[in-house]
Amino acid sequence: MNILVTGGAGFIGSHLVDLLLDNGHKVTCADNLYLGRMKNIRHRLKDKNFKFYKLDVLDFKKLNEVFRKGGFDAVFHLVANSQIKQKKVDTKLDLRLNFLSTHNVLEAMRLNHVKAIVFASSSAIFGETDNRLITEDTGPLRPISFYGASKLASEAYISAFAHNFRLQAWLIRFPNVVGGRATHGILYDLLHKLKRNDRAVTVLGNGRQDKPYLHVKELVEAMVFVWQKAKGSYNYFNLGPDSTIKISKIIVILMKELGLKGRTRIKYAGGERGWTGDVPRYRYSLKKIRKLGWKARLSSEQAVRLSVRELKEEYGF
Amino acid sequence: MNILVTGGAGFIGSHLVDLLLDNGHKVTCADNLYLGRMKNIRHRLKDKNFKFYKLDVLDFKKLNEVFRKGGFDAVFHLVANSQIKQKKVDTKLDLRLNFLSTHNVLEAMRLNHVKAIVFASSSAIFGETDNRLITEDTGPLRPISFYGASKLASEAYISAFAHNFRLQAWLIRFPNVVGGRATHGILYDLLHKLKRNDRAVTVLGNGRQDKPYLHVKELVEAMVFVWQKAKGSYNYFNLGPDSTIKISKIIVILMKELGLKGRTRIKYAGGERGWTGDVPRYRYSLKKIRKLGWKARLSSEQAVRLSVRELKEEYGF
């Protein structure tokens, strides 16, 4: 198949590009290199099945031109500002990077008769669900972060486009994702803080946040699996491991893997959330994807441990 | 209270302005007169508690200026492209008029410390629910019109703003709304068609679409009621009468009230939907709003009959 991956030089996108190329697909990657990096795809640049465009999908004219020339069978749309935590208030950042980018991709698909979209959605669309198991059909949807709001807005538009223009859609609601090439997230943040100072480190929140973590390689395998197996016109799945892991346990793993046990003083900043808009805990029901035939091999704990090792290798420690 | 009504010269907005002024509130109306009309608010222009700005809320600079000068206690945000049915494909129309307008209002509220928003949401956020009773917490949300998608995107952002900036929000999901000053909808459309030619008329769909209809005066009373009674930080309600009415029955009422019984040949265009994106039937569970103390006085049939009389009076027949 001839596939466009938007955000294909990013953390998750580049792993997806690897997998799709390994599976024999022709892959075009569009990435503005805002969060994406050339080093994530450099090893693929000579592959005759791979094409890279440095492109901002918010530039509709250029995006449409790539579609016009591309003749794609399907689009994996991963472009997003994956930084849920914002340093300063900009309520329009995710709106542009996550939602208007999605509208542009859908519009280019419509004009160029591309009929299949796989979309990187998120548990953040649900907001605070406490200890309820989140099924695919759980309501109400009350995102508390602008990231979650922009992903829900994107889902809403994919739904309307799918109905109006007979697109086939696969929406996959990611859990927390970890692994090599990460550009953000707790493991990335703490590793870099500890590289600067391993005597003491401050962890956001009170350590009791408790969520599922999936390794990026399992995530991209699952995306391709769902895309190939789910045959409905509108397919939407929660994705993750059965288990969750607490922040305090992640810290224990991190200390052990980095050889800092007993050396680093851990300070919790306190508060139920890591930051405003942080959902402190959630649990997915995975019946639907289990029934389709997919199950995570690694637990949240195993995924975290493997990821710490990969990041340590990648960035040095 | 000092209240801003966006879209206050429109069909629903102008009835709301009347009610709020009658209740003794100070009301500022912002409307670009795209669908709104001066004749809807002219009778209020000399009221010292009323102020009108011809303003497009998509113009953030001007909107922010109105907020800066206004010192509002609350915003009733009704600006929208209320034409769910689109004549030609423009997937960005509702995105701009319904969603980006909402983002602008929220952003102006944030910058000017206005903490209360009442939002005109819609049953269209739910999409196709067949004969299931729709509660406020029904999922999944799969809008099939761009109107519904833009309203869901708006709800998503109101949710995120509410959490991040401690706004209090009242989201009210309107059913079909009918009554005087309407600028669209089946009664308005057919009345105008029949004024041009009362020998024959074509009705979209197969006549079996079956939905709840609420009279606009009851709607605005309910909005104000919900705003005053619901005390949560985030309040969301389905709104409507218990009953639904089929299109074929609406046609019978219309013929009778216009004195055309036996004269006009009715042709149904056919198809389960009136147009692409039309939800053919839905039913609301009204337990939540009933518990708050509100109940529609008119059935769907009574609301339609009254509205035909009002429109006949307004436009002549």
How would you explain this protein's 3D organization?
In chain A, 49% of the residues are buried. The first copy, chain A, has 2 domains: 2-177 and 212-238, Rossmann fold, CATH 3.40.50; 179-211 and 243-283 and 298-315, UDP-galactose 4-epimerase, domain 1 (Alpha-Beta Complex), CATH 3.90.25.10. The first copy, chain A, has a 7-stranded parallel sheet with strand order 3-2-1-4-5-7-12, with helices on both faces. Chain A is globular. With 317 residues, chain A is an alpha/beta fold. Chain A has 9 helices and 15 strands. The mean pLDDT of chain A is 96. The A-B interface holds A 89, 91-92, 95, 99, 103, 106-107, 110, 125, 127, 136-146, 148-150, 152-153, 155-157, 159-161, 163-164, 234, 236, 276-277 and B 89, 91-92, 95, 99, 103, 106-107, 110, 125, 127, 136-146, 148-150, 152-153, 155-157, 159-161, 163-164, 234, 236, 276-277.
Task: Give a short summary of the structure.
Chain A has helices spanning 11-22, 60-70, 93-111, 146-165, 186-196, 216-229, 247-257, 287-292, 300-315; strands at 2-6, 26-31, 50-54, 74-77, 116-122, 133-134, 168-174, 176-178, 200-203, 210-211, 213-215, 234-238, 245-246, 265-268, 283-284.
